[in-house]
């Protein structure tokens, strides 16, 4: 099966640039695709200094849902947004004041890759951090998700008025140009030995080295989740009104393959009576199959195109969570999120939109703040799916509900509520 390779190099234009990220792309591009991927054949996608987070998200989603092994090579710089203080990959238009809107949230990488089977995804990174981000990362290692092998380094900020070189990624590319592809761990170790001393690095600063199972001082970042994820791709048919509202699509699970995406959902702790994929009520039956993770069952059904089966299984677990934990509990909210994702994956934009709207409303009713990331994410996903509903009557109905919710949860992007109102006005003229 062919592999997929995503080459991403990004850094701001102008004085905010810390690393000449794009300079490594010609070296990587000179490596045979099969060597980059470690498979007999591979599709390679290259993103050089992208301007918009949406462009990166689209390519990442397409790569994440492609069959076969996925290898990513990411070069660039990390900056914190001023509101949530979370790391972002700076893009060409990013400035310290606009990180939240013009950079790519690093957590999206883990969100989009979590559906992939363990052992099928490898990410190499060569990242430089500004002073603020460097201090933040000292006790919070980066992660690319529980099923992704992440290798590389985060380098300290260079001295003022200098631009660093992506020495680690250049070493990786040079090693691969030999035509031999060692194991990821061996490639990583060999690349580390080839990194020259950073002449422009701050005195006393040492790279933060990334490798599976390795963590530096402090607590891991993000916090070890109670939940993992499931994901799903958007509808392919043409919508009745513009499908790209001024809000980010699901935050969250190549070549020229059309973009398919699956937003991510957390996996709850096992239900008390069924720590596996046995359906509620099956535990203890003689002759029942060996129990498995319910999310693996759901993922297998989705991959086989059995969307109704996947949805029914998630609905049963939601009912069990409701019976066991009560309305508004995290397990119930989790399974609501899973079902909204599965509807998206099945191409049912209306059902997915309704699911996200219900989830956002339930989170608010449970006392979560309108600005909570989980609430904003649910509303943003509902907004995105609403743009894909092609029945004018259903779109008007859902749009009215979305507008009411947007008054409470405006989201991160300005103009989201105005967008809903404009589209509703246009829908009034459609039959």
At a glance:
By secondary structure, the protein is an alpha/beta fold. It has 15 helices and ten strands.
Describe the structure.
The protein is globular. With 431 residues, it is an alpha/beta fold. It has 15 helices and ten strands. The strands form two sheets. Strands 1, 2, 3, 4, 5, 6, 7 and 8 form an eight-stranded mixed β-sheet that branches. A two-stranded antiparallel ribbon has the order 9-10. It starts with a strand and ends with a helix. A hairpin with a 6-residue loop joins strand 3 and strand 4. The protein folds into two domains: 208 residues, Rossmann fold (3-Layer(aba) Sandwich); 182 residues, Serine Threonine Protein Phosphatase 5, Tetratricopeptide repeat (Alpha Horseshoe).
If you average the pLDDT, what whole number results? Answer: 78
CATH third-level topology of the largest domain: Rossmann fold
DSSP helical segment count: 15
Count of strand segments:
10
Strand-residue proportion: 5-15%
Low-confidence stretches: 198-204, 215-291
The quaternary structure here is: single chain
Count of distinct structural domains: 2
Please identify the top-level CATH class of the largest domain: Alpha Beta
Radius of gyration: 22 Å
CATH architecture of the largest domain: 3-Layer(aba) Sandwich
Euclidean distance between termini CA atoms: 47 Å
Question: What best-fitting shape do the alpha-carbon axes yield?
Answer: globular
Question: What structural class is derived from the secondary structure elements?
Answer: alpha/beta
| Order of H and E elements | EHHEHEEHEHEHEHHEEEHHHHHHH
Q: What percent of residues adopt helix (DSSP H or I)?
A: 25-40%
Largest sheet data = 8 strands, mixed
């Amino acid at each position: 099966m062919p592999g997929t390779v995503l080459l991403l190099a990004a850094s701001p234009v102008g004085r905010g640039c810390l690393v000449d990220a794009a300079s490594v792309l010609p070296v990587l591009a000179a490596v045979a695709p099969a060597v980059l991927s470690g498979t007999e054949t591979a599709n390679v996608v290259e993103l050089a200094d992208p301007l918009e987070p949406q462009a990166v998200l689209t390519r990442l989603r397409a790569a994440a849902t492609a069959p076969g092994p996925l290898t990513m090579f990411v070069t660039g710089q990390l900056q914190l947004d001023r509101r949530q203080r979370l790391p972002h990959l700076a893009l060409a238009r990013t400035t310290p004041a606009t990180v939240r809107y013009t950079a790519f949230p690093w957590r999206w990488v883990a969100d989009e890759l979590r559906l992939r089977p363990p052992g099928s995804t490898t990410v190499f990174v060569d990242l430089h951090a500004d002073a603020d981000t460097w201090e933040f990362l000292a006790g919070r290692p980066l992660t690319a998700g529980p099923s992704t092998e992440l290798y590389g380094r985060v380098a300290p900020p260079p001295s003022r008025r200098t631009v660093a070189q992506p020495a680690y990624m250049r070493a990786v590319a040079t090693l691969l140009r030999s035509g031999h592809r060692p194991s990821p761990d061996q490639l990583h170790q060999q690349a580390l030995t080839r990194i020259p001393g950073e002449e422009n690095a701050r005195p006393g600063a040492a790279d933060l080295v990334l490798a599976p199972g390795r963590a530096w001082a402090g607590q891991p970042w993000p916090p070890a989740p109670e939940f993992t994820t499931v994901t799903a791709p958007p509808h392919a048919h043409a919508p009745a009104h513009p499908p790209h509202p001024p809000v980010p699509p699901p935050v969250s699970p190549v070549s020229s393959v059309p973009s398919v995406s699956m937003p991510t959902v957390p996996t709850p702790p096992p239900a008390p009576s069924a720590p596996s994929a046995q359906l509620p009520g099956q535990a203890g039956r003689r002759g029942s199959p060996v129990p498995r993770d319910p999310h693996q069952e759901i993922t297998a059904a989705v991959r086989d195109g059995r969307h109704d089966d996947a949805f029914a299984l998630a609905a049963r677990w939601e009912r069990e969570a409701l019976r066991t934990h009560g309305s508004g509990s995290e397990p119930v909210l989790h399974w609501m999120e899973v079902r909204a994702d599965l509807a998206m994956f099945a191409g049912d934009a209306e059902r997915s939109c309704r699911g996200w709207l219900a989830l956002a409303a339930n989170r608010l009713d449970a006392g979560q703040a309108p600005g909570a990331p989980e609430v904003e994410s649910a509303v943003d996903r509902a907004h995105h799916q609403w743009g894909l509903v092609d029945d004018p009557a259903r779109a008007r109905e859902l749009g009215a509900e979305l507008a009411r919710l947007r008054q409470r949860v405006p989201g991160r992007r300005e103009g989201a509520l105005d967008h809903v109102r404009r589209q509703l006005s246009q829908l009034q003229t459609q039959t």
